[in-house]
Amino acid sequence: MPRPISARIDQDALEHNLQVARRATSARIMAVIKANGYGHGLLRVAEALSSADGFALLDIKDAIALREAGYRQSILLLEGFFDAEDLEQIAAYDLGAVVHSEWQIRLLDAYPRVDSLDVWLKVNSGMHRLGFHPAQVGMAMEALQRHRAVREITLMTHFANADDERGIVMQLETYNEIAANYRVSRSLANSAALLRYPETHGDWVRPGLMLYGASPFADISAAQLGLKPAMSLKSRIIATQRLKAGDEVGYGGKYRAEREMRIGVVACGYADGYPRHAGNGAPVLVEGRKSQLLGRVSMDMLCVDLTGLPEAGTGSEVTLWGAGMPIEEVASSSETISYELMCALTPRVPMLT
Fold first, then answer.
1. pLDDT band at 80, cuts 50/70/90?
2. Average model confidence (pLDDT) for the chain?
3. 195 phi and psi angles, rounded to 5 deg
4. Domain 231-352 grouped into CATH 2.40.37.10
5. In the annotation, is 93 catalytic?
6. What are the CA-CA distances from residue 248 to residues 58, 241, 242, 318, 326 (Å)?
7. DSSP 188-204
């Protein structure tokens, strides 16, 4: 009999969240499905989001898998290409590519076809990660516009603070000053900007996190945004223990009982992808009722409080995150972000639909 832990993927929720994005914008939607669909499964997510206008990801092998599975919409490589072999495959499978550095423009001479490559020119508008400095954009644009391989150019940037109080004003001003010089498609908005700043929508929006049913904002829940969780991580209690005052729980005794209490041992640990740094009080559901983590997460197990839950015991269902247990709450209590929790699930956790 397999361990009771599993992650259930709700494809209807994925499709619902895409429709939330659609209602928020008239722009075309480039659904971001990198990192194996944020841990949900690349082809499973693509199927649910098949009405998106395009898909964005990092690995060329994943882009090829989408093409071979029959997806014909735009597919964008978010870090572009790295060598001549990449360019051959990009041509063979009709992929689009982000160009963010001068060395990529030089490498474009190895592209084997004429007038067939869609390029997304990335502007570093203030995040200082990938992209051309504003003073370099004119050179890059001119080089791409006259290049024999380039068919269409989209001018893109990425916001660093669309999800917090600092907002997008400075980056948007920088981008708009540059974009005013060119008649090309525009792409700026991630999930947070799509939901909060309609002036950033341009021609293409690039939602990621919201498609998986998590809020990009610390002060607004996914439910308030009309989003549904696409992943529910569940397991069961495999043992119970009774504690007396002073008893400690788990490695290092990070939790000490102040009174008599009962705890449950859950088949889930950091080897499954649950964060080891989650501490006392991280929220869980036991048989649909709110409880909390006690002690340090170990490789294969964690402990939860069963005090006040007399009906719970061995075999009881535990929801680590998902339906009824917002992943943002778990992430916040663990001092991390929802993205990390989704992407950290390990291959030993079965994915169910």
1. very high
2. 97
3. -80, -30
4. yes
5. no
6. 45, 11, 11, 22, 28
7. ---HHHHHH-GGG--SE
**CB distance 341 to 273 below 8 Å:** yes
Domain 11-212 in CATH 3.40.718.10? The answer is no
Q: Which of 323, 112, 303 has its CA nearest to residue 222?
A: 323
CB atoms inside a 10 Å sphere around CB 139? 12
Considering the candidates 111, 182, 244, 251, report the single residue annotated as catalytic.
251
Active site residue: 34, 255, 270, 339, which one?
34
What is d(CA 15, CA 136) in angstroms, rounded to the nearest whole number? 39
Provide the whole-model pTM.
Answer: 0.96
254 counts as catalytic: no
Which of the four pLDDT bands, split at 50, 70 and 90, describes residue 113?
A: very high
Map out the domains of the chain as residue ranges. 11-212, 231-352
- HEC profile of the chain: CCCCCEEEECHHHHHHHHHHHHHHCCCEEEEECHHHHHCCCHHHHHHHCCCCCEEEECCHHHHHHHHHCCCCCEEEECCCCCCHHHHHHHHHCCCEEEECCHHHHHHHHHCCCCCCEEEEEEECCCCCCCCECHHHHHHHHHHHHCCCCEEEEEEECCCCCCCCCCCCHHHHHHHHHHHCCCCCEEECCCHHHHHHCHHHCCCEECCCHHHHCCCCCCCCCCCCCCCCCCEEEEEEEEEEEEECCCCEECHHHCEECCCCEEEEEECCCCCCCCCCCCCCCCEEEECCEEEEEECCCCCCCEEEECCCCCCCCCCCEEEEEECCECHHHHHHHCCCCHHHHHHHCCCCCCEEC
C-alpha angle with apex 77: 227 to 104, nearest 5 degrees? 145
